[in-house]
TrEMBL record:
CDD domains: ABC_DR_subfamily_A (cd03230). Residues 2-233 form the ABC transporter domain. This is ABC transporter ATP-binding protein. Pfam families: ABC_tran. Keywords: ATP-binding, Nucleotide-binding. The keyword Lipid metabolism does not apply. GO terms for molecular function: ATP binding; ATP hydrolysis activity. Transmembrane segments: none annotated. It comes from Butyricimonas paravirosa.
Amino acid sequence: MIVAEDINMKYRQVLKEIVALKNISLEVKEGEIFGLIGPDGAGKSTLFRILTTLLLPTGGKATVGGYDVINQYREVRNIVGYMPGKFSLYQDLSVEENLRFFASVFDTTIQANYDQVKDIYEQLAPFKNRKAGALSGGMKQKLGLCCALIHKPRVLFLDEPTTGVDPISRKEFWDVLKRLSKDGISVFVSTPYMDEARLCDRIGLIFHGGLLDVDTPNRLIGKHDKKLVAFRARDMYRLLKDIRKTPGVYSCFTFGDSLHTTFEENDFPVEEFTLSLKEAGYADVEWRDIKTGIEDYFMMLTNDISDGTGY
Ligand SMILES: Nc1ncnc2c1ncn2[C@@H]1O[C@H](COP(=O)(O)OP(=O)(O)OP(=O)(O)O)[C@@H](O)[C@H]1O
């Protein structure tokens, strides 16, 4: 449903050129949920805008549903639903007015496509007369999804649809995405939440405009072949700096309330190292072996590029 071949994007500014995408190639199948994962500024929104025909790439070729995103942009627009990163509905229109407006843009009606949006629309129904701007974050995103679905698209593009949304609404949102994918709709979604990344069928890891790897969540995690240890102490910032400069440490980054650390050799003497940290003044330092997550694999890949800091 989506094929991108060697997509490049450079933004030209007066004095410099910003390389936003470098040789992006990927494919997304019918009914597949494909997640694009990467930090702010990695190029995610740029790729969304190119694939939804809103931006011309400076190089490469892409098709959506078999249609070329440049030469057949009208056909592409008819078969895609797009939810941009920022809430882009009319804040002063009610829930129902927004939906009716989006339906009319595609020359259809809410009734004609009711089966497609029924699940979400029923959750919105109690608020149908409320102005979109007065909805909660989770409800706004559900309305955005409803509007993106109203013309029965075959491909959904969702740019960080659940950022800032509470965990229960996030779960409900993903339940809807799973149902849509079962109906054959392809979903191309970006998210900063690693628990959501695991819900995707496949993931593309993007960093500094380049795709580092594409695979299923489990296979990506399986590629992390380094011993992983979490350290904790009261003075985390000093500990981070000290661990990073220890010979034999491959990478160390903050994750939640601990420091995820890998080593050049998997037989690194963690016990002895912890003792030396205690002697160096970290009386309360603790360590434990931990299971690898997608973010650990991501950090391992970016480590060489980013010199151990992940950024
Ligand atoms: N219109 C523009 N003009 C110049 N540079 C831009 C423009 N849009 C994006 N960029 C730059 O291109 C790079 C990729 O930005 P992009 O917004 O695609 O990343 P992102 O992964 O979506 O991050 P975020 O989630 O912060 O938007 C960044 O360096 C950004 O500053």
